[in-house]
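Memo to structure team: turn this sequence into structure tokens by end of day. - J.P.
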Amino acid sequence: MADEQAIPDPETDRALGKMSFMEHLGELRTRIMWSVAAAGVGIAIALFITDPVMRFISRPLLAMKTDLVFTSPTEAFWTWMKVAMVLGIFISMPGILFQVWKFVSPGLHAHEKKYAAPFIIIGSLLFLTGGAFAMLVIIPYASTFLVTFGQEKGWKPMLTVSSYTDFVIKFALAFGIVFELPVVITILSLIGVVILVGIVVNNAIVMVEFINQRRAQGAGLRDALLESGQKRLRPILMTTITTVLGLLPMAVGVGRGADLRQPLALVVIGGLSSATILTLIVVPVAYSLADELTSRRKETTA
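Reply from structure team:
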């Protein structure tokens, strides 16, 4: 009797990360739609607090007796809506991060999925903290300094509501994103990118420093580049070989916790192997081009 073929279960395949390309696209569309819905809910809530927020961000200007103006009939309305949408994004950030996690979670192992709650909670808190820091600390001081600077030059401030609001929104979003760097660095550390970048950048810095030293001693550009490649070839290769050999057991997946350490090892081995060639070729070429451009600029100015 022939064995009955098991009927594939889409939910089971998704839980195991076994999805086709079209299924991934469908999943991405679903997560984007849910993210937009979360943002819509956030904007609906923000509509009720936009007026107090607008009064709050205008306080530094009011303290300097500087009023905001608008120069077109639609400027005030669209500025008000823009503030509401940005507030909605801040409010809906937990929901958006949750949808990001739902999209990437099928490709993770079971022990890696336990980071879902910290990722959503810490990421949301850091984003909100960055925005609050900009609103409460940076923007009041920046607004006072910049407007006062112009007044001391004898210029009269006439700020439109759209330009000042754009200034505030850019600062708030920028600091919200900057405050997310701990989460980004943590993720990059887990996959070995930080280790890889550190090794590659260190090799490049040492090579450039050697070239500068030889040129300061009177060597020509071509001779300095060739000698740096010869002198730094062995240390760079030794660093690469020893690091790759040391990470091979992790890359093969030997021992307990191998599922967590294997991606880190693969990233470092692959990246370091390719970056070694780039360091020995691209860095000298880039140095040569930069030196040539600098020389031409000096000749032009002379």
